[in-house]
Write a structure and sequence with these properties.
It is built from 8 helices and 7 strands. The chain folds into 2 domains: about 150 residues, Rossmann fold; about 40 residues. By secondary structure, it is α/β, with parallel strands linked by helices. α4 links the parallel β4 and β5. The chain is elongated, with a radius of gyration of 18 Å. The chain is about 40% helix and about 25% strand. The protein binds S-adenosylmethionine (SAM).
């Protein structure tokens, strides 16, 4: 249950935060936060009643009092929260959830695709990415973003590769590009070679 990813999500939470765990599914993050007293309050929500029932059973099993809400994003959450964790979803779902007038001051986001688009939109809707973690688990890198409501304009390079400064992550991207280069047509090859140069630059800077 306590995967590295859940622990890193939890590390981005502070003791004064009132957290909404959006799309909580099994509720593992909410359980981890509550059991370890890592925030002021945690609420759990999911668009799926079935998923929420799994979470509710888990909360009961661990004897935890965590309020739950069936809700598409923030829409039907009637309680105050200043922090939302939106993890384990695609960028387009995360952005749809954030297209709401009631957005909190702090976001912890973990998309499973299209990080460039996510970082770009996050800046455009008035959030600053203050921390980024790249976590390797189950043969995959998970990107976790901590954002607060503040102005920021990341460079194109930062939008594309993030601000994690994680050398292993950059090496992973470089190797992925090298594999791809063998399989794509010339025009795409040139683009990928250019990206490899940028990634090498980021690695050398470390
Ligand atoms: C893969 S699980 C991720 C669970 C957990 N957040 C995590 O990171 O381990 C995705 C969950 O998001 C829920 N979900 C998808 N779209 C949603 C939305 N618009 N609002 C709330 N929950 C949503 C799904 O029902 C599912 O339970």
């Amino acid at each position: 249950m306590n995967s590295e990813r859940i622990k890193v999500l939890a590390k981005e939470i502070s003791e004064n935060d009132t957290v909404l765990d959006v799309g909580c599914d099994h509720g593992y993050l909410s359980i981890y936060l509550k059991q370890n007293n890592l925030c002021k309050e945690v609420y759990a929500s999911d668009v799926s009643e079935n998923a929420l029932n799994v979470a509710r059973n888990n909360f009961k099993k661990y004897n935890l009092d965590i309020k739950t809400y069936v809700s598409d994003g923030f829409k039907d959450v009637p309680v105050y929260f200043d922090t939302a964790v939106i993890a384990g979803m695609g960028t387009s779902t995360i952005l749809k959830i954030l297209d709401n007038e009631k957005t909190p001051n702090k976001l912890v986001l973990a998309s499973n695709n299209d990080y460039y688009k996510l970082r770009k939109k996050i800046n455009e809707i008035g959030y600053k990415i203050v921390d980024e973690q790249a976590i390797y688990e189950n043969n995959h890198y998970y990107i976790i973003l901590l954002c607060i409501k503040q102005k920021q304009k990341l460079t194109k390079k930062e939008l594309k590769y993030g601000i994690s400064n994680n050398e292993d992550y950059y090496k992973y991207l470089l190797n992925k590009n090298k594999d791809l280069i063998k399989k794509v047509p010339l025009k795409k090859k040139i683009k990928l070679l250019y990206e490899c140069l940028i990634l090498k630059g980021l690695i050398e800077k470390k």
